[in-house]
Amino acid sequence: MTYNVEPWTQGTLAENIAKAGVSRRDFMKFCSGLAAIFAVGTPAMANAASLKPSAEQIAKALGEVKKPLVVWLQLQECTGCMESVLRSGGTTVEEVVLNLLSVNYNELVMAAAGEAAEKTLEDANNQDHILVVNGSVPLKDDGIYCTIGGKSAKQILEDSAKNASMILAVGACAVFGSVQAAKPNPTGAVGVDEIIKDKPVINVSGCPPIGEVITATLAYILTHGKAPEVDAEGRPLFAYGQRIHDSCPRRPHYDAGQYVRTFDDAGAREGWCLYDVGCKGPSTFSPCPIVQWNLKSGWPIGAGHPCIGCTERDFYDRFTPFYQTLPSAPGFGVESTTEKIGLGLTGVVAAGVAVHAGITAAQKAADRRATKNSPMAAFGDTAPGAKKPEPATETTEKSEA
Ligand code: SF4
Ligand code: SF4
């Protein structure tokens, strides 16, 4: 479907969307998708019921929005986050909404260049606006590793943050620096909330985040008129309130002790659990299994690849090598390995699942109290430098059940 998106100069979002050729039916479908995303993490939220609007309520609130001013910066980054939004598998209503919203300043899609682009940014910065940031901020050597129009990324960010009513850090780079900030962090890369301290920063994490989650966060702000409730990492709870592991379709295999041991074994072909080949789903909060990617056509674990934990802070330093098993399984003590879990659970599946469910709930509560940068001991993370559990020495039979 091709839509005819023209710059939003007047009228409401609903009027401009209709002008672009989006039918009411498609707009309602888009709003139903937003309602589903808003509902992902609501069990973890204090006032869940009031934050779970229906598609009709979203359509009404979003439709009435008058043109908001959005400044969308791209700092030290790879443009993957923008691609995630704009190339999700077809021309979507999300794309229409974002094209309409980001028309004021966005380096990738705006027509203006050079001094005209700088003037657009300056004008937008002088007004009340929503600031969206992709990319990290390099601080080493006076920030020379990322400059635009002669200004360092830090200066650009500070200038744009001054009059911003909301700030979204979108993508792992903007949230904590991502791969650029991995040891030894040669450019001194940091996330937005290391620079902007006087305003809350909403962290839409992931490398890249799911396009629909980025749109949903913007839509949340527009429809609720305030920032969403966030977790200890600053991520919107409505989307990041659940672990991958808790909604993963391979979870029954985890509980039954059925693990892929190599990527070409029978278990891999049967769609068994990827924990043993490095899946970080038990330590990762993200709506990936529910929202999925590219018009809901798939997601990494669905395609047979372990989760690498890209929505978690410092995932590159904490979760590599990516194909190494997490130090221990959640809920089974730090010495547990998948071999032991499998052995234990094949005998007492029902009891094991019940215990696991209880522990998972406790772990979720514990995670809410976790502080930034702390290893998630509740999930089996070890503190940097701590002794990791020894690999299993006993030989157990794989469950073929
Ligand atoms: S978060 Fe990932 S996809 Fe987004 S800009 Fe950074 S490296 Fe690219
Ligand atoms: S360990 Fe990974 S593959 Fe296995 S159930 Fe959990 S999230 Fe799914």
TrEMBL record:
Region listing for Disordered, in residue ranges: 365-401
GO annotation, cellular component aspect: [Ni-Fe] hydrogenase complex; cell envelope; ferredoxin hydrogenase complex; membrane
Family label: Belongs to the [NiFe]/[NiFeSe] hydrogenase small subunit family.
Source organism superkingdom: Bacteria
Binding site for [4Fe-4S] cluster 1: 78, 81, 173, 207
Classification via PANTHER family: HYDROGENASE-2 SMALL CHAIN (PTHR30013:SF7), NIFE / NIFESE HYDROGENASE SMALL SUBUNIT FAMILY MEMBER (PTHR30013)
Transmembrane segments: none
Amino-acid positions noted as binding [4Fe-4S] cluster 2 in the UniProt annotation, renumbered to this chain: 245, 248, 273, 279
UniProt name for this protein: Hydrogenase small subunit
Cytochrome-c3 hydrogenase C-terminal domain mapped to chain residues: 240-323
Sequence ranges assigned to domain NADH:ubiquinone oxidoreductase-like 20kDa subunit in this UniProt record: 78-220
Residues annotated as binding [3Fe-4S] cluster: 288, 307, 310
Organism of provenance: Mobiluncus porci
GO MF, one example: electron transfer activity
UniProtKB keywords: 3Fe-4S, 4Fe-4S, Iron, Iron-sulfur, Metal-binding, Oxidoreductase, Signal
Pfam families in the cross-refs: NiFe_hyd_SSU_C (PF14720), Oxidored_q6 (PF01058)
Swiss-Prot/TrEMBL cofactor(s): [3Fe-4S] cluster; [4Fe-4S] cluster
Quaternary structure and partners: Heterodimer of a large and a small subunit.
Ranges of biased composition (kind: Basic and acidic residues): 387-401
Annotated localization: Cell envelope
One record GO biological process: anaerobic respiration
